[in-house]
From TrEMBL:
DUF559 domain: residues covered: 6-109
InterPro entries linked to this entry: DUF559, Endonuclease_DUF559_bact, Restrct_endonuc-II-like
Lineage: Bacteria, Pseudomonadati, Pseudomonadota, Betaproteobacteria, Nitrosomonadales
CDD domains assigned: Endonuclease_DUF559
Pfam family, one: DUF559
Domain of life: Bacteria
SUPFAM superfamilies: Restriction endonuclease-like (SSF52980)
Protein source organism: Sideroxydans lithotrophicus (strain ES-1)
Name under which the protein is recorded: DUF559 domain-containing protein
Amino acid sequence: MAEKEILDNAKTLRTQQTEAEQRLWFHLWAHRFMKLKFKRQKPIGCYIVDFVSVERKLIIEIDGGQHSEQVEYDQRRDFWLRSQGYTVLRFWNNDVMQQLDGVLEQIRLTVIALSPQPLSR
């Protein structure tokens, strides 16, 4: 896929977010979550990720039912993203809609784990 096509696709995805993506974005947007900057529908290589904190190299994917039919594709995609130094978290739409506090807590714990540790003296 050409770079312009990927960028156009990302813009389209930003205007057509799922309800679960909108719900999570409300909490990630404008440094609301742990004062981190997240971007949505961001191209990385030839992929478009749902949400990314570039600072923490953390990608958050919100999956609908179609992902149960494309497991191998998602595995290849996640492998490549991890090879670029990213941590990838995946949540089902239902998790975001029904257990948002648990999703946010898992993201928070991952951010803490990815945070640079202070040097010991």
